[in-house]
Design brief:
By secondary structure, this protein is α/β, with parallel strands linked by helices. The chain has a domain at about 5-120 and about 130-175 and about 220-255: Rossmann fold (3-Layer(aba) Sandwich), CATH 3.40.50.720. The chain has helices at about 15-25, 40-50, 65-70, 85-100, 135-140, 150-160, 180-185, 195-205, 225-240, 260-275, 290-295, 310-315, 325, 330-335; strands at about 5-10, 35-40, 55, 75-80, 105-110, 130, 165-170, 175, 210, 215-220, 250-255, 255-260, 285, 305-310. The strands form four sheets. A seven-stranded parallel sheet has the order 3-2-1-4-5-7-11, sandwiched between helices. The longest helix is centred in the N-terminal third of the chain and has 18 residues, at about 85-100. The radius of gyration is 20 Å and the shape is globular. The N and C termini lie far apart (about 50 Å).
Length: about 350
């Protein structure tokens, strides 16, 4: 019987983390993992225990708690806030303690995002640049001011220091409605961000809207296929953490296809017309006031982030869902809001 591996997980009640956790619990070898999740909601923590998951109630801001939990496990899977520097530093302090006490390097799988390679197109144009997760030099040269970079750089530094193996997962625009057991139990989030968000905007204003012309292009990935990549990465790292690209080379892009925001918002517009909530299917540019109200005052969702998953696919990962598959789910998103 395989030795039990301990996992400390953040983001376990979120859209990505909940799906990853649910898949781990459904595996034939689930009994070989002892999982503890950091959960803010005491009621959800109680429900998770019914699924055999140990819990600790707290948040990423409870850095002493995060450090302690990270010091006691073989694996850390961080799937919560990609920009929470303090919790990342706490995890690394914990993994360093673990190494000092055991001489064994922790496996640390961190979730970042494609916006780390985003440009400033503001929805006005596409970009021919396609980032490759195998281009370690190019990724290392990204400005520290790019979204997610402060945490990503901190994570990599831990690996370079030699006390932890780090692997950074960068999902594209995620889509798909979560139907796994933790979602149906009301523990984990069911919905992604981009499609529900732009559907909400369209319903509120009576017409689909995009940042600028929506000409920007972004990598996209279906939830289940993204989960498959996490689990392949975990399995590969458990077999031999040195045989899998890690640290400076350990970036894994979650992408199966790409989509323009015009395609997304046009599909929303067509659904709005079909459902009698709009007359014109064409998206109209969002005003500054609407961007402030719905998009946190930033035009970041007008950025290009085109990517190629060379390193991720070397795991044997074979995502197959297309842009058309993604757009085929749009009407459901709109219907859910009206």
């Amino acid at each position: 019987m395989a030795a039990t591996k301990t996992i400390f997980m953040t983001g376990a009640t979120g859209y990505i983390g909940g799906a990853v956790l649910a898949s781990l619990l459904e595996r034939p070898d689930a009994q070989t993992f002892k999982i503890k999740a950091l959960v803010r909601d005491a009621e959800k923590a109680k429900k998770l225990k019914e699924f055999g998951v140990e819990t600790v109630v707290g948040s990423l801001d409870d850095v002493d708690l995060v450090e302690q939990e990270a010091s006691e496990v073989d694996i850390v899977m961080a799937m919560a806030d990609a920009d929470h520097v303090a919790s990342c530093q706490a995890i690394l302090r914990g993994t360093k303690k673990h190494f000092e006490q055991t001489g064994v390097r922790t496996i640390y799988i961190h979730t970042s995002g494609m916006m780390t390679v985003a440009d400033n197109a503001r929805g006005l144009h596409a970009n021919d640049a396609v980032w490759d997760d195998a281009d370690a030099d190019g990724l290392a040269a990204l400005p520290f001011t790019q979204m997610h970079r402060p945490v990503d750089v901190t994570v990599v530094a831990g690996d370079v220091a030699g006390y932890v193996y780090t692997y950074i997962v960068l999902p594209g625009v995620l889509w798909g409605h979560a139907e796994h057991a933790l979602a149906t139990a009301g523990i984990a989030h069911r919905d992604s961000i981009v499609l529900p968000l732009f559907s909400k905007i369209a319903v509120a204003r009576g017409r689909a809207g995009a940042v600028g012309a929506g000409a920007n292009i972004h990598a996209c990935i279906e939830l289940g296929e993204q989960v498959d990549m996490y689990l392949r990465l975990l399995d590969a790292a458990l077999r031999d953490p040195t045989a899998v690209p890690h640290g400076r080379e350990g970036y894994y892009f979650g992408v199966s296809d790409e989509v323009s925001y015009y395609q997304i918002t046009r599909a929303i517009g067509e659904a709005m017309v079909k459902l009698g909530r709009a007359r014109d299917p064409a998206p109209a540019p969002l005003t500054k006031e609407e961007i402030d109200k719905y998009l946190w005052g930033t035009e970041l969702l007008g950025a290009n982030a085109r990517c190629k998953a060379t390193t991720a696919k070397a795991l044997g990962w074979k995502p197959s869902k297309t842009t058309n598959d993604m757009l085929g789910t749009v009407e459901r998103e709109v219907k859910a809001l009206i």
